[in-house]
């Protein structure tokens, strides 16, 4: 602690860069296409003693600038994270403190998950569909899996819910089944996760589950807008048809975002409490709030409560590739994150070569902070 109080925020450097996916990303049940490049905002902190740390931040430079002149120790505690008023620099302060203390963030958090963590590709969208033109067909989806496998991924999350909006219901449901079976056939050892983006109803997802029962799905994410009744129906179907398949939810704020963002970012605390309560009832296995939009420090506070309820976490990491690294640092630091969402690609100017992805396992750098260099 003491050493942090010797550092004062001297200046900030804002930089707009670009994230790039390895291919254009298409549609999910709700929206698309997700494009191939997007601007990304970063902020680097410099202290009066020459230390630096940087991270993903919002486009608003006003809030961070108000923190110039403040002691790092007033804004950040290694044991609990960033104070609320400095939330806009949450990631950068973790990096800075790690750099000052000579500690990787995952060690600062307790190293309860070790240094490696399973990872899946979160970039397998409706690559067989193009609602605006000629449909590429299911082969395109296999090619996306192969591209990510060549980059070190071994597990895949498939978007399902084609029948919600972009296809006729029956044909879309049938395509979801076809695609799931096809990926299982080509990648027999992969963990297959599926994400409905709330594009099914309980009866529909149970029909889907029956049709892919032999595919041994790893998890079902956001099949429908979560209700206790719906989740009970799904849980029963899982017990019967697909024992071991996890239920993951909490990514969507369900049209009840916290505005302005509070201690749990864009999540209403009451919503997170409801999700944890569903975990305690045995109806949710993995909670998915976003690592950026809920917050890194918020996850440090929430995950122990999730674990106490008997569930686990996996911070949503789409859409910037370095959000995967942040989520993985949380997972390795706190444990109780069974797998992290991989966002294939890179952010221009970011050297993330310390993160090693091989055979579906991500190994984190042992370097201080997040171990990411901004060139
Ligand atoms: Mg999702």
SSE topology:
Blueprint: H1 2-5, E1 9-25, E2 35-47, E3 52-56, H2 62-65, H3 72-75, E4 76-77, E5 81-82, H4 90-101, H5 105-108, E6 116-124, H6 138-150, E7 156-159, H7 162-165, H8 169-186, E8 192-195, H9 202-211, E9 219-221, H10 228-241, E10 246-249, H11 269-280, E11 286-287, H12 296-308, E12 312-313, H13 321-334, E13 340-342, E14 346-347, E15 350-351, E16 356-358, E17 361-363, E18 373-374
Helix pairs in contact: 6-8, 9-10, 11-12, 12-13
Bound molecules: magnesium ion (MG).
Can you give a write-up of this model?
- This protein is of the alpha/beta class.
- The protein has 2 domains: 101 residues, Enolase-like, domain 1; 259 residues, Enolase-like C-terminal domain (TIM Barrel), CATH 3.20.20.120.
- The protein has 13 helices and 18 strands.
- Strands 6, 7, 8, 9, 10, 11, 12, 13, 16 and 17 form a 10-stranded mixed sheet that branches.
- Strand 8, helix 9 and strand 9 form a beta-alpha-beta unit.
- Helix 12 packs across helix 13.
- The mean pLDDT is 97.
- Bound molecules: magnesium ion.
- The site of magnesium ion has 5 residues, from loops.
Characterize the largest beta sheet: strand count, sense, and whether it forms a barrel. Answer: 10 strands, mixed
Structural class: alpha/beta
End-to-end distance: 29 Å
User: What is the number of helical segments per DSSP (H or I, 4+ residues)?
Assistant: 13
Proportion of β residues? 15-25%
Average pLDDT confidence is 97
Bound molecules: magnesium ion
How many structural domains in the coordinates? 2
Instruction: Describe the global form.
Output: globular
Rounded to the nearest angstrom, the radius of gyration is 21 Å
CATH homologous superfamily of the largest domain, by name? Enolase-like C-terminal domain
- Please name the CATH topology of the largest domain: TIM Barrel
Give the uncertain stretches in residue-range form: none
Extended strand count: 18
* CATH class assignment of the largest domain: Alpha Beta
Helix content: 25-40%
Q: From the coordinates shown, what is the CATH architecture of the largest domain?
A: Alpha-Beta Barrel
């Amino acid at each position: 602690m003491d050493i942090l109080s010797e550092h004062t925020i001297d200046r900030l450097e804002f930089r707009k860069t670009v994230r790039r996916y390895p291919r254009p990303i298409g549609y999910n049940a709700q929206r698309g296409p997700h494009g191939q490049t997007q601007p990304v905002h970063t902020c680097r902190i410099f202290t009066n003693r020459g230390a630096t740390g940087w991270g993903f931040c919002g486009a608003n430079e006003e809030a961070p600038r108000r923190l110039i002149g403040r002691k790092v120790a007033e804004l950040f505690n290694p044991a609990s994270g960033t104070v609320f008023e400095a939330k806009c620099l949450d990631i950068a302060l973790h990096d800075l403190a790690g750099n000052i203390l000579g500690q990787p963030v995952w060690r600062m958090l307790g190293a309860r998950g070790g240094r490696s963590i399973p990872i899946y590709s979160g970039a397998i969208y409706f690559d067989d569909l193009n609602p605006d033109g000629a449909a590429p067909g299911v082969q395109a989806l296999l090619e996306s899996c192969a591209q990510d496998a060549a980059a070190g991924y071994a597990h895949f999350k498939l978007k399902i819910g084609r029948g919600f909006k972009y296809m006729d219901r029956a044909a879309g449901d049938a395509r979801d089944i076809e695609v799931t079976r096809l990926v299982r056939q080509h990648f027999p050892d992969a963990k297959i996760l599926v994400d409905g983006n709330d594009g099914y109803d309980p009866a529909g997802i149970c029909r889907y589950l029956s049709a892919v029962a032999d595919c041994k799905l790893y998890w079902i994410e956001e099949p429908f807008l979560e209700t206790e009744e719906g989740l009970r129906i799904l849980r029963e179907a899982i017990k019967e048809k697909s024992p071991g398949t996890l239920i993951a939810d909490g990514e969507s704020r369900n049209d009840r975002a916290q505005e302005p963002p509070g201690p749990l970012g864009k999540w209403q605390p009451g919503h997170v409490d409801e999700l944890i309560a569903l975990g305690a009832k045995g109806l949710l296995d993995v909670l998915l709030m976003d690592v950026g939009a809920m917050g890194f420090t918020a996850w440090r506070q929430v995950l122990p409560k999730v674990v106490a309820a008997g569930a686990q976490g996996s911070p949503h990491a789409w859409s910037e590739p370095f959000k995967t690294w942040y989520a993985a640092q949380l997972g390795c630091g706190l444990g109780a994150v069974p797998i992290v969402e991989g966002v294939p690609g890179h952010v221009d100017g970011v050297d993330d070569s310390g993160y090693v992805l091989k055979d579906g396992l991500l190994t984190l750098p042992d370097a201080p902070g997040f171990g990411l260099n901004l060139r």
